[in-house]
């Protein structure tokens, strides 16, 4: 919050110097938040050559990727606070939860690299939401939202398998039956199979309610209806 105010203050000073017109800081304008998850076995299969991908022993389901301020037109604000830095000490109390539910699967990096990236790129753009206005609240609120959404329950009937996949329609129907809205789905093709690597839900910025977001957002789904989608087992 403080950095945002500083940006506004600087912008206001510059505006006063240049002209009398009010300046609107557009960087962090957005329409909704996207709660994004990853399916670790699929991420590790598709990233195997690029990363030393390791799934924590206590992760057996979807893990958090991030909470992203997003726009209906599929653009999004990013890195909204150039003077901010990630402070691991500030989220010390959340480390057990972060390590379990929001792990960095890339073992060649520091665990904190993922959180730092997510906070600085996305979190700093959501500081207008009261419960996301500090680094600690960004992580605590996102962890709490994830617990509340309980996305694994939505996928309970879609059994992980290397041989049985599900049509895109079946996957979306399961998501819609549970949340009342479709999901944003990303896939990567690996050994001829479409692996679901990411899953996102659009939630409102005022009360984190899941809603059916703009069709343009679903238009960005990279999972295709032409072949089945797979969730590899852990
Ligand atoms: C990091 O967070 C801790 C705990 O909240 C705080 O005491 C410390 O001053 C912070 N460090 C920086 C550089 O902001
Ligand atoms: C964004 O999309 C949602 C859902 O379709 C709609 O309710 C909202 O008015 C849209 N916002 C803008 C700024 O277009």
UniProtKB/TrEMBL annotation:
It comes from the Eukaryota. Keywords: Disulfide bond, Signal. GO terms for cellular component: extracellular region. Residues 1-20 form the signal peptide. Pfam families: Ribonuclease_T2 (PF00445). GO terms for molecular function: ribonuclease T2 activity; RNA binding. Coiled coil: none annotated. The active site is at residues 65, 118, 122. GO terms for biological process: RNA catabolic process. Belongs to the RNase T2 family. This is Ribonuclease T2 family protein. It comes from Capsaspora owczarzaki (strain ATCC 30864).
